[in-house]
Amino acid sequence: MTARFADPDPAAIPIRIVAADDLDRWLAGQDEPVRDWVAANGFTAKAGEILCLPAPDMSVARVLFGWGGPKDHARGRFLFAKAAAALSPGTYALTGDLSADQREEAALGWLLAGYRFTRYAGKPQEAPRLVAPEGVDAARLEAIAAGETLTRDLINIPANDMGPAELEEIARGLADEHGGVIEVTQSEALATGFPLIHTVGRASTRAPRLIDLRWGQEGPTLTLVGKGVCFDTGGLNLKPSASMGLMKKDMGGAATVLGLAAMIMTTGAKLRLRVLIPAVENAVSGDAFRPGDILTARNGTTVEINNTDAEGRLVLADALALAAEDPADLTICMATLTGAARVAVGPDLAPFYTDDDAMALALMQAGRRVRDPLWRMPLHRPYETMIEPGIADLDNAPKGGFAGSITAALFLDRFSGPGRFVHFDIFGWNPTAAPARPVGGVGMGARAILDALPRLLPT
Questions:
Q1: Which pLDDT value is given to residue 274?
Q2: So what's the pLDDT on residue 388?
Q3: Which is the catalytic residue, given 82, 313, 371, 420?
Q4: Which residues of the chain have pLDDT under 50?
Q5: Which CATH class name applies to 142-456?
Q6: Could you give the CA distance from residue 129 to residue 123 in angstroms, rounded to a whole number?
Q7: Distance of CA 78 to the CA centre of its chain
Q8: Residue 386, SS3?
Q9: pLDDT in tens, 13-68
Q10: Of 78, 108, 240, 421, which has the maximum CB count within 10 A?
Q11: Which UniProt keywords are given for this protein, alphabetically ordered (predicted)?
């Protein structure tokens, strides 16, 4: 269940934000019992520190929350979410000297801190609620939190309950809820029209498909393409068990674009949205595709298969080829594509590739503003020779291991067609608990994209 803000309540318990360098000034304006209580409890306003101030009946009258200093916020996000995790159920209100962006981050962090994945164990618990701080767009933040919740849930659900059919069901539910339309291509039509998607998914007992959702009647056009590999064994180039353990998250690109689509539709953005998801399971059987095979993509490009574990770029290639047949003003590709990206930037940054400097700047600025960190990577054209094997137009897994995330982006760029294009190579998983981000599936880049869309799309 997605968290929501509490209705305005004059009885809400105020949470006072106090920066470390402002504590003495604030204390000077308080009465002696408050100063004594703060001193007795050793409250210094360090980042994330919480102190409840009692009323005469020993109920909580106020809460002090330590804001630390600028260095604390540079090293972490959603600090205020620690209050949501620590306080008892009740209704609270945020006070203190915060900028508009800080209030927005604090409010969203509180909502995201309420996320729990309880489908298989445990049950939802009553959580503290926050009155929306003054000046924030509460409905928009609730829509963002709901989209992030959808993304997290889809990634966290194991593959036995989240295959291509279940991914389709989620997309259909979004279309029905928001008045969109959906078309799904399977079976012979998939084999004929989307040969790479079909080839990657044909070894599984769970039928592959191409999900095509459209929404909106006016405005600029935006196409989101998300990798929907619901589980990746690696195919005949079988992954070792240590690498296969998290492969339920290999549909994190699809989960992210569906979460982003939900945000866009709920907020009523004036645009025409298309969501394309190649949904497959990369399995092993007598019908699995092989190393050395040469496949022909939807657009006629031939691809030599040098590793069946580099399947994500194959299914995305067919989806991007379809998108290029009806070019959008902006096409965004989201995929949990390469381990090379994780080696380069770790799990917390969402690297992206584009030749468009203005778009890259807008995305980076948005990521900083909404605390959804992105990092631009080089779409280095001289490396294109690495994906040109000679025996076919493209190689899906160049030998040598150098620049793996870059060569994957260059591969996808060959299918993107005209128009503005950006590719995200995300992780989709939070390996270490942090404020507002428990261990497990997590959205990456969606909030930054949503914030940047007015500057990325024509008016």
A1: 98
A2: 97
A3: 313
A4: none
A5: alpha beta
A6: 18
A7: 16
A8: helix
A9: 999 999 999 999 999 999 999 999 999 999 999 999 999 999 988 999 999 999 99
A10: 421
A11: Aminopeptidase, Hydrolase, Manganese, Protease
Q: Which residue intervals of the chain bear CATH 3.40.630.10?
A: 142-456
Say if residue 175 is exposed, middle or buried (CB neighbours under 10 Å; 0-12, 13-18, 19+): buried
455 is catalytic: no
Q: Which of 253, 167, 188, 197 is nearest to 415 (CA)?
A: 197
pLDDT at 401: 83
Q: Please indicate whether residue 298 is annotated as part of the active site.
A: no
- Which regions of the chain carry the CATH code 3.40.220.10? 13-135
Identify the CA nearest to 264 among candidates 450, 114, 85: 450
Angle at 290 between CA 289 and CA 293, to 5 degrees: 95
pLDDT for 1 equals 58
Kindly state which CATH superfamily the domain 13-135 is placed in. Answer: Leucine Aminopeptidase, subunit E, domain 1 (3.40.220.10)
Query: Is the entire prediction scored with pTM above 0.90?
Result: yes
User: Both tokens of residue 191?
Assistant: 């084999």
What is the token pair recorded at 250? Answer: 């290999």
Structure-block tokens of residue 330: 């902006």
- Reduced to 3 states (helix: H, G, I; strand: E, B; else coil), residue 123 is coil
Closest listed residue to residue 319, CA positions, set 270, 358, 278: 278
